[in-house]
Amino acid sequence: MMKLPLTVHLFCLLLISGSALAQLSPGELAAVHSHLEGLSNCTKCHTLGDKVSNEKCLACHTEVKARIDQKRGYHSSAAVKGKACASCHNDHHGTTFQIVRFSKEKFDHNLAGFPLTGAHTKKACIDCHKPALIVNKAVKSKKFTYLGLSNTCNGCHEDYHQNTLSANCTDCHGNDAFKPAARFSHTAAKFQLTGKHQNVDCQKCHKVTTRNGKKFQEFTGIPFGSCINCHTDPHKNKFGPDCAGCHSGESFLAVKTISNFDHSKTNFPLADKHAALTCKACHKTSITDPLKHSACTDCHTDYHNRQLSSKEGITDCSACHSTKGFNSTSFTIEQHNEAKFRLEGAHLATPCLACHKKKEKWNFREIGIRCNDCHKNIHENSLDAKYMAGPGCENCHNPEQWGLVRFDHAATAFPLSEAHTKQSCRACHFRKDPEGRAIQVFTGLPKTCATCHTDIHNRQFENDGTTDCLRCHVAARWKIDTFDHDRTAFKLDGKHKNVPCYKCHKTVKDGPVTFTLYKIKDTRCESCHL
């Protein structure tokens, strides 16, 4: 029997009635292939005289072919590669037949080219394989498919960083959880974390804000060229923007030792004595601790115990002292004379401490303004109180020269005249006690000459216990040039007028006293003339 070509057979089949054709078909196609029903469509899947062709399947299912050509996905895996499509996806089993059939629970996702790890293992297939996540337009129109997904993180997850970071999320994140970003290492960033920065919470620098109406955390575009980009400059740029010149990342409180630090840039320039101090002399706890420095007493003890004030125009130590040292003072005599006690005479040369620091403590208030507040009253009770009234010592003395006394002796019961005016006060008013110490006698002094002068006549002219020298002598000149002998019991006449005094008035001795005898008891001639 002659064998006819396959084309003849097909042609004959076309002439057969519909019922006959239905009997020739293995069965109805699945719903997704229903548009291929009919003998005229057989060659769209089948090769004449042969089985279903993979090429014909892939010519229609281009999305699968593209992945195979790229050697990606499940159909390029070792478990599937080289198999006939029909071995897994055969048809003609009815319209409700599921061409794509496999066990979701047993499916090895590693074969799909996207191993499920971490949190992905807890997801249901539909969580990822859903139309909303299909990015391939050719696949998106299909009612059911596991294809068309992107294998990038952003294919399923919203890009929280809004394209500001790498699209490869796994550079920072792991599959277990997005937070924390376990794979991120700040060493890969432009800003290396050292010192205290290692312990700072991320959000301190990477602020959470809103961008495009969504929550957004800044990770890029954050300025870091200077410390003041993040930290407030407490120095207000006095020392420039280079904080690292003094501080380190270990701690702002740990300041580097800087030998050439320019303190003049601070609010307290160092000069004179201050310039020689070490930093710790003032910055005792930490060099960054704020120091009060508006007044000298912020650092120095007020040795004046707050006795000085604005009353004298003194608002601070600098009103009198300088940074060259406290030992010197610029407080002027003119300033001192504004106070209750004016400096005059010898007081102008008196050092401050002579009056204001008599003991251990400086005193400026209520130290007295009378002479005896500072000076010992050497007269004590030897002067009548009436002479100490009023200004006191100034009644007799003056600050120019204390020994120059200007007391008016006429106010006493013994006015001074003649030679007495030339005598010093001490000559009359100072005596020596039995022990040889000088004592003063101002009150109660007798007015007799013998009070001050020695009676060289050994009381020859005493009358009622008193010798009146002025009967013979005068204050102007003590030596007697002329004596009226006629007033005595022995008048001089004849030759007696020319006899020298000493011829008759001999020097005699009465015990320890030697004197000239004027009171001659025996005036007979034979007492002198033999």
What does this structure look like?
Helices cover 14% and strands 6% of the residues. The protein is low in regular secondary structure and 530 residues long. The strands form 5 sheets. It has a two-stranded antiparallel sheet with strand order 1-2. A two-stranded antiparallel sheet has the order 3-4.
Produce a short descriptive summary.
This protein has 530 residues and is largely without helices or strands. Among the domains are: 6-122, no CATH class; 292-369, no CATH class.
Layout of secondary structure:
Layout lengths: L5 H9 L3 H7 L29 H7 L1 H8 L55 H4 L8 H4 L12 H4 L45 H4 L2 E4 L2 E4 L29 E2 L2 E5 L23 H4 L50 H4 L15 H5 L14 H4 L50 H5 E3 L5 E3 L21 E2 L2 E2 L33 H4 L2 E4 L2 E4 L14
Antiparallel strand pairs: 1-2, 3-4, 5-6, 7-8, 9-10
Radius of gyration: 67 Å
- Poorly predicted ranges (pLDDT <50, ≥5 residues)? 1-22
Q: What is the residue-averaged pLDDT?
A: 85
Helical proportion? Answer: 10-25%
Number of strands: 10
Strand content: 5-15%
Overall 3D shape: rod-shaped
Strand order of the largest sheet: 1-2
**What multimeric state do the chains show?**
single chain
Number of helices: 14
The description of the largest β-sheet is: 2 strands, antiparallel
Order of helical and strand elements: HHHHHHHHEEEEHHHHHEEEEHEE
Distance between the termini: 233 Å
Overall structural class, as computed from helix and strand content, comes to little secondary structure
